[in-house]
Design a protein that fits this description.
Number of domains: 1
Mean pLDDT: 97
Number of helices: 9
Distance between the termini: 10 Å
Shape: globular
Radius of gyration: 18 Å
CATH class: Alpha Beta
CATH architecture: Alpha-Beta Barrel
Low-confidence stretches: none
Amino acid sequence: MQGIAVLNPDELGQDPSVGMDLALAIGVRHLEIRTAHGSNALVLDDDQVRSIRQLADERGLRVAALASPLWKWCGPEATPGRVDSFGFPTQVPAEERVRWVDRALTVADILGTDRIRVFSHLSVGEQTETFRDDPLLSYALKAAERAGMRLLLENEPVCTIAEPTPLLDVLQAHPELGLWLDLGNLFEVGHGTAEAVDALAPYTEYVHIKDYRPRDDGMKVFVAAGTGAVPYRELLPALHRARPGLPYALETHVRATPGEALTYGASFLRATIPGGLA
């Protein structure tokens, strides 16, 4: 069974039509929506979201997932470190969070997707909140089920759940929750192995692909998938064997030449995943 290639238009800028046109040019038929027009997708108004859907429909493209920022937050009393939240606040009062969950469901519905990414609270020392037993998670999972949607947890290093053991713990505690597996993040926290992939594969419903080279100062230089340190030639076949037919979304973060990085990355995925990508 083939996997599915996904491209995020905002990797090429805030005009979604530019990224959509590249998707067509490199044979990608599915999109991930995160930001557009200078705003997080959750902050856009309904007409702006409908315009994104219309641009996709006109090109015969389908939105595979909403890359929402839900739970990539802490309370107003906490001070987050450097966090890329893609145009969404990182300090969110508890009383505002239900509204954002509801908004994500509305935006996903307009876009025509049933996959919504979530995180697991920012790690902020003693003020860090717990994700597994968060009442908002129970609310969101029930609301998503009623809407015919799936919430998928990304393993994010700046959040509370990034390694296989706590991921398995929360996924087993909440069967309604799936895994948005970022293989680059898994490698970053020291678990970029086929064994970790095998353990997480039964819960994986969506995959993020990004690659980088570590610098001596501890920072990362993002590069096209397949040209960095993440051992994709081992991880991708292992994941495909355990869970064929997954969506694989390119998230390059390559600023200077994003189009080239996405084009190379799509070709690399097709060559590396057994059976290729649709």
